[in-house]
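## retry 2 of 3
previous attempt timed out at serialization; input unchanged, resubmitting
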Amino acid sequence: MLLFRSEQHVDRWCKQWNRPRGGVLGLQQGCRLAKEWYGDRLSPAWRPKSASEAEAAF
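## retry succeeded, writing output
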């Protein structure tokens, strides 16, 4: 995961490094995803997400 300050910054970085532009999340969306994905990680009852749970998170 890379963090950028703007959509234009993403475009410049992709051009500079000759990389295709992938998915871009806003800060709030990224935080929601992180909370969903890692929110229970320290719980003793934690278990890896199933494929369907992982797909639903995205």
